[in-house]
């Protein structure tokens, strides 16, 4: 096994653990606020929602590895605010967006969705600003929302006040900002590999 493969596996495992941690914290917040209710009609394994954390962890690992991969292969290296302090601020804003959708009362769902859309795009503008990051964020939001619609349609869980088919209209904003956040974490973890690669080329 090569050094680069080992590094890729280590980054994937680290991203998986981060994704699991985020899913536990953010899912707990939404369940406590009764935004999401897991169905009682499904199997006991699904009642405990054991699958949420590993699913989110896997998604986080894939997203965190895809961002630096596309940066490298599209010839658009991400250089804007490449330091851990910026990544931590990005995480704080992402958690704040989740907190807003779960706890702040808006006049209607449309106002909430527009506010969260602006906040999500603001997160991308503040901590990313790359075309690949924006494109991947949109793709992740569309795909993840579609998968969530299927899960809700099949009764795995439900939203208490759906207004966008079976889910809430602000859900794509959460997925978009989550994709950008995990992408920035993945990029920062990949910095060390990039530095080693440059050194090898120079030698």
Automatic annotation (TrEMBL):
GO biological process terms, semicolon-separated: cellular response to insulin stimulus; cholesterol biosynthetic process; SREBP signaling pathway; SREBP-SCAP complex retention in endoplasmic reticulum
Stated family: Belongs to the INSIG family.
Location(s), subcellular: Endoplasmic reticulum membrane
Record's keyword terms, sorted: Cholesterol metabolism, Endoplasmic reticulum, Lipid metabolism, Membrane, Steroid metabolism, Sterol metabolism, Transmembrane, Transmembrane helix
Transmembrane parts of this sequence: 12-29, 49-70, 106-127, 134-153, 165-185
Signal peptide: none
Keyword Oxidoreductase attributed: no
Protein name (database record): Uncharacterized protein
Pfam family, one: INSIG
Keyword Iron among record annotations: no
Source organism of the structure: Capitella teleta
Predominant location category: endoplasmic reticulum
UniProt topology in membrane: Multi-pass membrane protein
Domain of life, per lineage: Eukaryota
Gene Ontology cellular component terms for the protein in this record: SREBP-SCAP-Insig complex
């Amino acid at each position: 096994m090569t050094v680069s493969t080992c590094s890729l596996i280590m980054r994937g495992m680290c991203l998986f653990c981060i994704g699991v941690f985020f899913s536990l914290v953010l899912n707990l917040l939404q369940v406590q606020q009764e935004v999401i209710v897991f169905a009682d009609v499904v199997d006991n394994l699904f009642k405990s929602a054991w699958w949420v954390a590993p699913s989110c962890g896997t998604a986080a690992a894939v997203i965190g590895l895809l961002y630096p991969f596309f940066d490298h292969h599209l010839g658009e290296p991400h250089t804007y605010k490449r330091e851990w302090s910026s990544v931590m601020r990005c995480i704080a804003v992402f958690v704040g967006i989740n907190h807003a959708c779960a706890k702040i009362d808006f006049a209607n769902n449309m106002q909430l969705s527009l506010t969260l859309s602006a906040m999500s795009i603001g997160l991308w503008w503040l901590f990313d600003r790359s075309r690949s990051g924006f494109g991947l964020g949109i793709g992740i939001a569309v795909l993840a929302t579609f998968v969530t619609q299927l899960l809700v349609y099949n009764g795995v869980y439900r939203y208490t006040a759906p207004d966008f088919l079976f889910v809430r209209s602000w859900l794509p904003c959460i997925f978009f900002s989550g994709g950008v956040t995990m992408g920035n974490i993945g990029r920062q973890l990949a910095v060390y590999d990039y530095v080693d690669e440059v050194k090898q080329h120079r030698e």
